[in-house]
Each structure stands twice: as C-alpha cells, then as structure tokens.
C-alpha cells in the first residue's frame, strides 16, 4: 500500500547521508521505484527497465509474501523453489528462535 511505502521511505530518509553506503543504497533502492496503476482489467504495466532487471519473460509467476507480492520469471522461480525446497525444514528450525 502507499502507506507501507511511505513508512519504508521515512525509515530510509533517516539513514545518515554522510555515509557513502547509505547514499549508495538509497540511490539504488529508489532508482527502481515506479508508481503504477491498475488498468480496467486489474493489470499493471511493468516498465521495461524493471522487466529487464528481473529477467522477466512472457511466462511469470506471482507469489504472495506476507503483505506484498513478488513477480518472478517462471523458470527462475521454479529453479529457486526447487533449490530452496530441500532446505526449507532447516530454515524453519533456525527461525524457531524468533518465537513463531
């Protein structure tokens, strides 16, 4: 949501601009930000630079990650999922310390 984006933006703006890493991070992070609107059919147009950055092809997968979505190239997502599937239980056990 726009409110969530504004919260992220506020936190980012509190980074010390005297630090090179903070400036670099903010430049890279915000340079890819684009506000888009849904068309009448509920679709968005992903700008070319973001499609290229994410290596999106015609076949994409949209996944839900808590309160946000991620758009992956289908073959990239499938490879990530297969690679991560085997370690999922180990990761879950490591995260138990976070009181889920």
From TrEMBL:
InterPro entries from the UniProt entry: MraZ (IPR003444), MraZ_C (IPR035644), MraZ_dom (IPR020603), MraZ_sf (IPR038619), SpoVT-AbrB_dom (IPR007159), SpoVT-AbrB_sf (IPR037914)
First and last residue of the signal peptide: none
Entry keywords, A to Z: Cytoplasm, DNA-binding, Repeat, Transcription, Transcription regulation
Record's protein name: Transcriptional regulator MraZ
Gene3D superfamilies hit by this protein: Transcriptional regulator MraZ domain
Superkingdom: Bacteria
Top-level taxonomy: Bacteria, Bacillati, Bacillota, Bacilli, Bacillales
CDD domains reported for this sequence: MraZ_C
Domain SpoVT-AbrB: residue ranges: 33-76
One MF term in the entry's GO annotations: transcription cis-regulatory region binding
Any Pfam family matching the protein: MraZ
GO biological process, one term: negative regulation of DNA-templated transcription initiation
HAMAP family: MraZ
């Amino acid at each position: 949501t726009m409110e969530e984006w504004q919260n992220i933006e506020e936190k980012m703006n509190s980074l010390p601009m005297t630090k090179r890493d903070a400036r670099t991070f903010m430049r890279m992070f915000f340079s890819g930000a684009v506000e888009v609107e849904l068309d009448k059919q509920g679709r968005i147009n992903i700008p070319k630079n973001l499609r290229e950055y994410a290596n999106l092809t015609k076949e994409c997968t949209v996944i839900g990650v808590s309160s946000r979505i991620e758009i992956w190239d289908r073959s990239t997502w499938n490879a990530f999922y297969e690679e991560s599937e085997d370690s999922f239980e180990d990761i879950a056990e490591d995260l138990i310390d976070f009181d889920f």
